[in-house]
Amino acid sequence: MLLAEVARVSAEVAGTSARSRKTALLAELFAAAPPDEAGLVIAYLAGRLPQGRPGIGWRALAREVPPAGEPTLAVGAVDAAVTELAAVAGPGAQAGRRRILDDLLGAATAPEQRFLRSLLSGEVRQGALDAVALEGVAAAAGVPATALRRAVMLDGSLPRVAAAVLAGGEEALRTVTLRVGRPVQPMLAGSAKSVAEALAALGPCVLEEKLDGIRVQVHREGDAVRVYTRSLDEITDRLPEVADLARALPGDAFILDGEVIGQGADGRPVPFQEIASRVGSRVDVAAARQTLPVAPYFFDVLAAGGEVLLDLPVHERFATLAALVPEASRVRRLVVADPAAQAAEAERFWADTLARGHEGVMAKGLDSAYAAGRRGKHWLKVKPVHTLDLVVLAAEWGHGRRTGLLSNLHLGARAADGTFAMLGKTFKGLTDEMLRWQTERLRELAVEDDGFTVRVRPELVVEIAYDGLQRSTRYPAGVALRFARVLRHRPDKPASEADTVATVLAAHPGLPQR
Ligand SMILES: Nc1ncnc2c1ncn2[C@@H]1O[C@H](COP(=O)(O)OP(=O)(O)OP(=O)(O)O)[C@@H](O)[C@H]1O
Prior knowledge:
The protein has 514 residues and is an alpha+beta fold. It folds into three domains: 3-174, Orthogonal Bundle (DNA ligase i, domain 1), CATH 1.10.3260.10; 188-382, 2-Layer Sandwich (D-amino Acid Aminotransferase, Chain A, domain 1); 387-506, CATH 2.40.50.140. Helices cover 38% and strands 23% of the residues. It is built from 18 helices and 19 strands. It has helices at residues 3-15, 19-32, 38-45, 58-62, 75-87, 93-106, 110-121, 129-141, 145-155, 158-174, 195-202, 240-247, 272-278, 285-291, 314-324, 343-355, 432-445, 501-506, and strands at 188-191, 205-210, 214-221, 224-228, 253-262, 294-304, 307-308, 333-336, 360-365, 375-382, 387-397, 406-414, 420-426, 446-449, 453-456, 461-465, 468-471, 479-482, 485-489. The strands form four sheets. Strands 11, 12, 13, 14, 15, 16 and 19 form a seven-stranded antiparallel beta sheet that branches. A five-stranded mixed beta sheet has the order 1-10-9-2-8, with helices on one face. Strands 4-3-5-6-7 form a five-stranded antiparallel beta sheet. Helix 1 runs antiparallel to helix 2 (19-32). The termini are far apart. Belongs to the ATP-dependent DNA ligase family. DNA ligase that seals nicks in double-stranded DNA during DNA replication, DNA recombination and DNA repair.
């Protein structure tokens, strides 16, 4: 398929707000694409490169290269060039990359060049696109979107399933199933303001402690154990404790869902930042295991004995979990079968969980299935402090002690049109270690630096605590955060899952009038 086709449809999709029109445009494109290229087309439309970012600075990208007159560049050729770009290493790498880049841009027409530049810089990331692309693929393949969505959730990869269904239709969907060893999108939670609100929304439910660590999905088949993060990256080697524990369990074909935390000598959980640095890629695992041992606490089981359990209700999945995992390695829970009669007991569980140093509680509908990859209304988190997940849009160079470090962060929430609306700035809450880390990360994401402010690709999510909202004429959403401070970086969370302007506003119905 020609890149020109993808670039044209991408522009048309971005230019229309009607979802049905977007779906129709994409369906037409996928129907015309060879099935084995569908994955690549989906990735490009969403602004993703399967190879990851090939380390080209914005200056190199901005250089003018005479465009081609006619569109002849195929998506396969772009993919090959990006693979080549990613492979360039060693002395002379920069010149090598420029040569490949110039050849690529030189083969592209002016509109294709624009598309390629935004793709390579990563500046345009349409997080919402995957959902529409899925509907487009379903329409092109003539299968129900719900069936396709389920297959994608089981398989974990839209590109892979799209290729299969476009080639083999509904028949191909039937062969897609959850496999031990292949990570599946984890179920996510909505939120409630209080335990009472959660009980009212869910009815009979179970309350679990919400541990503040790293989500892990643990797969075991025979003696082979693999550990994946929330974003499905494999981290088996970084958490040998988890693999050891999984290997010691009495079962040999299962998938568990849980959270890894560390505990001090007093049994209280250590701060999240320490756990996050424990799984960092440059950590000496053997040494870290001595200084900061961690342990998994499981709360769900997705498959056991080779059987898929996703559709079973929580209480049945939990019975399987309890047979597989000893109590000491499970999260604590309270079954609230009768919310009206157990309201006081539920409040005690909440108070006790907080007193033990945990982040909050999770309430889960007793009869609910495991909705992989979805932010369900059947799981509700309740935390004592209101926090937001916002995206860093830019950062200002620090002064004094912070000279040479990127400090003051410009924070944005997702707006309805797919862009980000800035809600405020903050340089508070950042430890020296966090400042160092974010400077390094934001430099990788930089698209422009005027000496004061570095504008970045909107990819880094940060969790923010704040005291409220105030009206503001300075910011595009008409509101600004009051006393925002950074709690943590969330490199594991994609910007497409950051909070939206609408949810931020909805959390503050009593916003002071001007
Ligand atoms: N008992 C539990 N059940 C489910 N998830 C739990 C539990 N304890 C801790 N967690 C963590 O809480 C997260 C669920 O919250 P959510 O789906 O909102 O994701 P999140 O945005 O990463 O959460 P948060 O921002 O609150 O850390 C899970 O991803 C998991 O890491």
